[in-house]
Amino acid sequence: MYIIVGTSTCPGCLKAEEVLKEEGALYIKQNVDELDPVRKLAWSKFLQEELNTTTVPQILRYVGNVEDLRRDISREKLLNG
Q1: Per-residue pLDDT for 81 more than 80?
Q2: CA-CA distance, 8 to 1, in Å (whole number)?
Q3: Tally of structural domains, the chain
Q4: How far is Cα 37 from Cα 60, in angstroms, rounded to an integer?
Q5: What's residue 48's pLDDT?
Q6: Which segments of the chain are extended strands (E)?
Q7: What is the pTM of this model?
Q8: CB contact at 8 A, 29 and 36
Q9: Any idea what DSSP says for residue 50?
Q10: Measured on CA atoms in the order 42, 27, 17, 20, is the torsion positive or negative?
């Protein structure tokens, strides 16, 4: 599953959502401009401090539990040789 972090007017955010729909991928979208001030600040800090960015969209991939993590790491190793 993917998480799109963006705004409701961001062209790149809309394009990312379009691509995920075309591919039939599961996703959720977090429009930070539609949040209350406290949650908006929390997302802004997350983008700046954890992802070291201030631009949107940011597309995150949800992995799941520990077994899902192991499968995801194995898949990445296969893809990257």
Answers
A1: no
A2: 20
A3: 1
A4: 22
A5: 96
A6: 2-6, 27-31, 58-61
A7: 0.80
A8: no
A9: I
A10: positive
DSSP 3-state assignment of 1? Answer: coil
What secondary structure letter does DSSP report for 34? Answer: G
The predicted structure's pLDDT at residue 11: 97
User: For the chain, where are the alpha helices, taking DSSP H only?
Assistant: 11-23, 37-45, 66-80
CA 16 from centre of chain: 10
Digit-coded pLDDT (tens) for 21-72: 999 999 999 999 999 999 999 999 999 999 999 999 999 998 889 999 899 8
CATH code: domain of residue 58? 3.40.30.10
Q: What residues make up the domain containing 38?
A: 2-80
Q: Are 61 and 1 in contact (CB under 8 A)?
A: yes
Q: How many CA atoms lie within 13 A of 41 on its CB side?
A: 3
Mean pLDDT of 15-23: 95
